[in-house]
UniProtKB/TrEMBL annotation:
The keyword Protease applies. Belongs to the peptidase S9A family. Residues 1-22 are annotated as: Disordered. The keyword Hydrolase applies. InterPro entries: AB_hydrolase_fold, Pept_S9_AS, Pept_S9A_N, Peptidase_S9_cat, Peptidase_S9A, Serine_Peptidase_S9A. Residues 481-697 form the Peptidase S9 prolyl oligopeptidase catalytic domain. Residues 13-421 form the Peptidase S9A N-terminal domain. This is S9 family peptidase. Keywords: Hydrolase, Protease, Serine protease.
């Protein structure tokens, strides 16, 4: 392990040790840093000023330490920030999406941090400002806009915001004729509302004290929210709930799910006081999604062993499971990701052999065609439509070298119209870059895809620094899409690579199943195998690879640091889920019960306990020669609580060998997503990139 001497000889904070023992299944663990969890953590999420002074002072000391250790990168951070900001069109706007007499869109003003919501006449014209995020954020240390929903008669707008970072959203209703918010204000919501009953009221979810959306309500405009009708209460803490609507405004849809089981309940939108009607009762492992189709529903489901999903149809008058009829059969290896129903077409986004496709099906004839693309590896996204009776859909396309493009596509004529290409004001020449797809043999013979980008003039002699990114949980796939920020590394001679490891769905649903619960170790082995493959192919060397991941990807960072510290020259763990066992043993935490299908339930199962204990990063810190490590967290994060990385950093420093530093940066006024503004977020990325350059980029070019 190379000892990095670029850091000053400053002593880090030393956390006090107050050992607390916990015994489960006859196994005792001792946690010397359990005191870092505030007893009033729910209150801290709502009001950070209530944090205990002992904990606050320790966190502030951590921030002082990391600031001093990274002081020599201040100029580099400023340069990186300027570069990344220079690649953003400051007054950028979306292509407005049509809905009736209007088209709705978002835009930023030059220098603005927050989006502005606007509308124009349907075929274009003068913009009407509906909501100014910069104005709403004035005077707030943190501010993030949530969901919006305009009424079907276009007279009002539901909008929401979070001003703590704790994801307790406040809902408001704006009168679009006057631009003023009316008196309907609802706190502690999940962040969105859905209009119903001719826009006389709306549905929403409210979070309980443990930050779970356990109740759905109906609010009538002009009434006291305290009198809102409780529509449905989910009593199982293992399930989350959301509420939405259909484009025809005929149904209110309650979606209830954990990570492997789904249940839908329906309410006619013009009968908001009706009891929700269940579609298919929850059955462990059964997943389905409903999509409107007029007098039918389309059902995307894994029922009957359809691991990679199939599409069925069912009458809207009786959508019970026994009435489902297969329309698009299951095809192993072709993962259907999502569907959208229209008056004359059914659209599906699917992935086969790791490549996404958009397939259009004519409802009357059953004829199908796919939208064709030229590049070998790319990213696709369905933007859909506000409207149901239309032949036009919208989608986005990009690759690691091709800036994002937005298209309208006529499903009848098959005509593709380019609406917008992402502008890079500082310039971008795709011919200067090369993107590649490698396959890394894993420990068990599986082949792990790697997407990478580097400058065309880079000499592949094993000397280049590399940032290797990974996630690998919840079935989330990381797309090989265009990202202007990473060019600040690539232009300095870095190779930027994404490891498409198990735990995601990059190679189908089985790829996800092979990276969860008892097979979770495959995720970590895959990432290590990807690092080795990059070295074998001459892209880099192990002491020049900086591993990066966030949230569950931060857990990945902690695990691979324990398993193969010699394989990496540095580790960046952002909002890292590193105290997995302790968190999964605490049913009071916001995400714990819903997470048991993903990780296992160590409370009920000794086997699950032992599996999690075998890889949980905090529990496996040892006397190893770790590379330099950077952990980043947010005080009000309800998803990965601040004390997880705080404890991990303290234990790493106490137990590790060698002199490589462990840094901890904690945002005292934000949560899981970090800074809320688009430019303040760039400052955070510049900080992480500066760390990567500091520990591995000594081998890189100093300029762009």
């Amino acid at each position: 392990m190379t000892i990095h001497k670029d850091f000053p000889a400053i002593e880090p904070p030393v956390a006090a040790e107050h050992p607390e023992a916990d015994t489960r299944h006859g196994i005792t663990r001792v946690d010397e840093y359990a005191w870092m969890r505030a007893e009033n953590w729910q209150e801290v999420f709502r009001d950070p000023s209530t944090l205990d002074d002992k904990i606050r002072n320790h966190l502030l000391a951590e921030n002082e330490y990391q600031t001093a250790m990274m002081a020599d990168t201040q100029g580099l951070q400023a340069t990186l920030f300027a570069e990344m900001k220079g690649r953003i069109k400051e007054d950028d706007s979306s292509v407005p999406m049509k809905d009736g007499p209007f088209a709705y869109g978002t835009a930023y003003r030059t220098g603005g941090e927050q989006p502005r919501f606007f509308r124009t006449p349907r075929e274009g014209g003068v913009e009407e400002l509906l909501l100014d995020g910069d104005h709403e954020a004035e005077g707030k240390a943190y501010f993030r806009l949530g969901g919006t929903d305009h009424a079907s008669d276009h007279s009002r707008l539901i909008w929401s915001f979070d001003d703590k970072g704790s994801e307790f959203y406040t809902l408001k209703v704006r009168d679009l004729s006057s631009g003023a918010d009316i008196g309907d204000i609802i706190t502690d919501t999940g962040g969105s509302g859905t209009w119903a009953d001719g826009d006389k009221g709306f549905f929403y979810t409210r979070l309980d004290e443990n930050h779970r959306p356990s109740k759905a309500f109906y609010h009538v405009l002009g009434t006291d929210p305290a009198q809102d009708r409780l529509v449905y209460e989910e009593t199982d803490p293992g399930f989350f709930m959301s509420v939405g609507g259909t484009r025809r405004n005929d149904w209110i849809v309650l979606s209830i799910n954990d990570h492997e089981t789904t249940e839908y309940r329906l309410i006619p939108a013009d009968q908001p006081h009706a009891e929700p009607r269940i579609v298919a009762a929850r059955e462990s492992g059964l997943q389905y999604e409903l999509e409107e189709g007029g007098d039918i529903f389309f059902v995307l489901t894994n029922a009957d062993g359809a691991k990679d999903f199939k599409i069925a149809t069912v009458s809207a008058s009786d959508p019970s499971r026994e009435n489902w009829t297969d329309l698009v059969p299951h095809e192993p290896g072709r993962l259907i990701l999502s569907i959208m129903g229209f008056a004359r077409h059914l659209v599906r986004l699917e992935r086969k052999d790791g490549i996404p496709r958009i397939v259009i099906r004519e409802r009357e004839t059953g004829e199908e065609h796919a939208i064709a693309f030229d590049e070998e590896a790319y990213s696709l996204g369905l933007s859909g439509s506000y409207e149901y009776d239309t032949d036009v859909i919208r989608f986005s396309y990009s690759s690691m070298t091709t800036p994002a493009q937005v298209f309208d596509y006529d499903m009848r004529t098959r005509e593709r119209t380019l609406l917008k290409t992402q502008e890079v004001p500082s310039g971008h020449d795709a011919s200067n870059y090369v993107t590649r797809r490698l396959m890394a043999p894993a420990h068990d013979g599986e082949l792990v895809p790697i997407s990478l980008i580097h400058r065309r003039d880079l000499e592949l002699n094993g000397q280049a620094p590399c940032l290797l990114y990974g996630y690998g949980s919840y079935g989330i796939s990381i797309p090989a899409s265009f990202n202007t920020n990473l060019l600040s590394l690539v232009d300095r001679g870095f190779v930027y690579a994404i490891a498409h490891i198990r735990g995601g769905k990059d190679k189908g649903y089985g790829w996800y199943e092979d990276g969860k619960r008892q097979k979770k170790a495959n995720t970590f082995h895959d990432f290590i195998s990807a690092a080795r493959r990059l070295v074998e192919h001459g892209y880099t060397s192990h002491d020049r690879i900086v591993a990066q991941g966030g949230s569950a990807g931060g857990m990945l960072m902690g695990a691979v640091a324990n398993m193969a510290p010699q394989s990496f020259g540095g580790v960046i763990a952002e909002v890292p889920f590193v105290d997995v066992l302790t968190t999964m043993l605490d049913a009071s935490l916001p995400l714990t019960p819903p997470e048991w299908p993903e990780w296992g339930n160590p409370i009920a199962s000794e086997s699950d306990y032992n599996i999690i204990a075998s890889y949980s990063p905090y529990d496996n810190v040892d006397a190893l020669d770790y590379p330099p490590i950077l952990a980043v967290a947010g005080l009000t994060d309800p998803r990965v609580t601040y004390w997880e990385p705080a404890k991990w950093v303290a234990r790493l420093r106490a137990r590790k060998r060698g002199t490589n530093p462990v840094l901890f940066k904690i945002h005292m006024d934000s949560g899981h997503a970090g800074a809320s503004g688009r430019f303040s977020r760039l400052e955070e990325i510049a900080y992480s990139y500066a760390f990567a350059i500091k520990v591995a980029g000594r081998h890189a070019k100093t300029g762009a």
